[in-house]
Amino acid sequence: MDSFDGIIEFVAVAEANGFSAAAKQLGCSTSHVSRQVARLEKRLGCSLFARSTRLVTLTENGTVYYQQARVLVVGLQHANEQVNQQQVHLSGTLRVSAAGGFAEHFVAPALMKFGCQYPELSVDLDLNSRLVNLLEEGIDFAIRYGELNDSNLIARKLISRPMMAVASERYLQQHNTPKHPVHLKHHSCIVSNNDSWEFNVDGNKEVVKVKGRFRSNNANVVLDACKKGLGVAYMPKSTFKEAVESEQLVPILEPFWGQGTSSWIVYQNKRFMPLRVRLAIDFLVQHFADWDES
Questions:
Q1: pLDDT tens column, 23-33
Q2: Which residues touch 147 (CB under 8 Å, ≥6 apart)?
Q3: Which of 136, 171, 195, 251 is the most buried (most CB within 10 A)?
Q4: What residues have CB less than 8 Å from 178, skipping those under 6 apart?
Q5: Is the separation of the CB atoms in 101 and 223 below 8 Å?
Q6: 172-175: long-range contacts (C-beta < 8 A, 24 or more apart)?
Q7: Domains annotated on the chain, with CATH
Q8: What is this structure's pTM?
Q9: What residues in the chain have per-residue pLDDT under 70?
Q10: Gap between the Cα atoms of 73 and 272, Å rounded
Q11: pLDDT tens-digit profile of 78-136?
């Protein structure tokens, strides 16, 4: 039976393209993964990986072995899940990357709710606006907003996020209320992720290039700047919900609001996915299934 030792580690290294990344996914040390793979190679009498200082790739023998070994690993994973499907016990650490007001106010509480269901599970939520490399940093999945450019990732739609334009009453009294999106060229606009704002004009998309004296990639900062009268802001409706209801901000240009983009869960395309990751993704998708941005 010891001939099965190291197979899980081998498959993880093959799919993560490295020992360190595989160790993060498995929740163990890099040295442990290296030892297990080395012992497996010794038993098989051949090298499974070609190693260099910066790159780990499968050898010809390794590729053939991986194609068979991954079937065993996935089969074992499914067998374990079926045995425990009535009472699942999740452990280890779930690592998630997200950013922005939606992540802070809605995704974080949802992950807390998920974590409460599994006392042995740890959740590591990194709220950072930088674009992380999921594989290199050992991130299980990320919450991203807008257009997705990485074709190597699997994306599951979380919610749609229609837009809203707002400004403070003080700002509008000083600078007048814009009646058409093109009027924004003469206003101070608070820029978040981009300065090209897309509106719906007579059923067609119209992009207006805006500028202003305040910029931030954090939705909460943009919201505060707008409340203080620094200009017009244009972000998903939920960002402004409380401020509009409390009359701190005034909706403007309503007939022209765009459909916006979506928030997505993105993760690596790999067959060996820990159960905690798959269940967390399914939980979030279900949790936001009835989301209403209005």
A1: 888 888 999 99
A2: 261
A3: 171
A4: 184, 186, 187, 232, 252, 253
A5: yes
A6: 172/250, 172/252, 174/229
A7: 2-83 (1.10.10.10), 92-159+263-287 (3.40.190.10), 163-259 (3.40.190.290)
A8: 0.62
A9: 1-3, 78-88, 147-151, 270-272, 293-294
A10: 7
A11: 666 665 554 567 788 899 999 877 888 889 999 999 999 998 899 999 988 777 778 77
Q: Which two tokens stand for residue 23?
A: 């160790």
Give the relative orientation of helices 19-26 and 30-44 as an angle to the nearest 10 degrees: 110
What are the b/e assignments for 77-113, b being 16+ CB within 10 Å? Answer: beeeeeeeeeeeebebebbbbbbbbbbbebbbebbee
Burial 269-286 (b: 16+ CB within 10 A, else e): ebebbbbbbebbbeebee
Q: Are strands 261-268 and 141-145 parallel, antiparallel or unpaired?
A: antiparallel
Token duo for residue 201: 């004009």
Quote the mean pLDDT of the chain. 87
Q: How many residues does the chain have?
A: 294
Q: Spell out the SS3 assignment of the chain.
A: CHHHCCHHHHHHHHHHCCHHHHHHHHCCCHHHHHHHHHHHHHHHCCCCEEECCCCEEECHHHHHHHHHHHHHHHHHHHHHHHHCCCCCCCCEEEEEEECCHHHHHHHHHHHHHHHHCCCCEEEEEEECCCCCCHHHHCCCEEEEECCCCCCCEEEEEEEEECEEEEECHHHHHHHCCCCCHHHHHHCCEEECCCCEEEEEECCEEEEEECCCCEECCCHHHHHHHHHCCCCEEEEEHHHHHHHHHCCCCEEECHHHCCCCEEEEEEEECCCCCCHHHHHHHHHHHHHCCCCCCC
